Amino acid sequence: MLPPRQQQRSGGIGIETALSLVSSDQEPPRRESPAESASSQETWPLGDTVAPRTKTMMMVQKTEPDSHEQSVNVMHHVSNADKVSVRDIARERVELVAERMHRLPDEFLDELKNGLKSVLEGNVAQSVDEFMFLQKVVQSRTDLSSTTLVRAHRVQLEILVAINTGIQAFLHPNISLSQPSLIEIFVYKRCRNIACQNQLPADDCYCEICTNRKGFCNLCMCTICNKFDFSVNTCRWIGCDLCSHWTHTDCAIRDGQITTGSSSKNTSGPGEIVFKCRACNRTSELLGWVKDVFQHCAPNWDRESLMKELDFVSRIFRGSEDQRGRKLFWKCEELIDKIKGGLAEATAAKLILMFFQEIELDSAKSFENGGQMAPQDACNRIAEVVQETLRKMEIVAEEKMRMFKKARIALETCDRELEDKAKEVAELKAERQKKKLQIDELERIVRLKQAEADMFQLKANEAKREADRLQRIVLAKMDKSEEEYASNYLKQRLNEAEAEKQYLFEKIKLQENSRVASQSSGGGGGGDPSQVMMYSKIRDLLQGYNLSPKVDHPQSNERNPFRSNP
């Protein structure tokens, strides 16, 4: 038989690491129900596993109202034309949805993933119907190939893989698989178990199961239920010692693959318990396999694990017709009762290991006391021991070769990821150089605009100075024009006064001459004395005016404001 299902059977990742890769709200598979394989909970959790998650989500929503309000605000800021739903991703063309998703903010994409996550968890009404509809739509599309998925947005690809596989771990923010790996998982070229991630078919196996079942991995999946879980070092998994395929013990019991019969060694008669592998249709005995599992793992089991392993063995050998199988069944039932009664698990583990040693001694004694054994039987027994040893050596060699292939595949994967990272770094450098050139161009434009602004400011200052100078000139011209106007006005009035004076003077002189003439001709004092007196006064005034100096330079308009028309 193969050794117990060790950690390397899950892709080289231990059980703690494997569980940490799953979404934090995904619980380990249930072990309480012996009627069904626990790994069948890979896609849909039961009701009692949904309820605690619902409470946890409610607590998270209560403790983080600000982030919820922020996401609601982001949803409101996204236009209806740019919004994308899970159904749009499942139905519409890859490049069209990718183009719209590139314009969406990260908060909206996170809300989209959380919505599908709630559907997979069963927290939304009619979750099963919605998931079945989405999966039917995705799996019925013929355009989803490796060529078209290369153009998909990363979140779009994660959602398509989660719908196709039914595993919500692909939506978890702490899990970041490369885009080529997600594409290979979608097209069934890589194991969907995040803890395994082997290329398919694993170990280049081309048996009927590995060839015909899409996405089947013989390193971590059950040949009956096609599911996987993270249980190691346990009787929960049975490995075929001929083709190295694994099967759940529960599935094997339920499907009738564990039954009474004769194994290839045929050392204990036809009534021993054997396991018939569905992959190769050959049988293997289970007693030696159970003994190896307990010898390797029992000292590390706690009380609960030991009781469950004893229950597995009890159910395996319940119908045994072989004497050793019946003794093992009775011993398991006895130890389960003693553990329930308070027996320490360490003591129980020692007792079961001692029981296996006793069975081995009894087999050796029966072989030593088999004097009546025919020589042919003795030769057959020796040949079987040699063949068993050679087979174990071959298994070890195959395991080493498998580990070497796995390490080589991991190295190639690392090389590819390193190349991808190098390309990303080169793209980032090119983008950085492009941004730097754009920044330099913007700085040059800013400097140019600043120089233009300085030039316009200088011209504005010069224009302002010129305006001030012109204003001063205008004021000076206005003052000078006022002075010239006043001077011209006074000169004109003076000329008018001079003309009027001359006119009056001539008139008076004429009248005086006429009066003198009349006096000389008439011989009397003719004329009115008052009129004579008035003329005399006017003549004196005019003579006095002629004696006064003429004004050539009148005063400024402040003292002689002659602006009105004469």
From TrEMBL:
Polar residues: compositionally biased ranges: 1-10, 557-566
Subcellular location: Nucleus
CDD domains xrefs: PHD_OBE1_like
Protein name: OBERON-like protein
Entries under SMART domains matching the protein: PHD (SM00249)
Main localization (coarse): nucleus
GO biological process: maintenance of root meristem identity; maintenance of shoot apical meristem identity; regulation of gene expression; root meristem specification
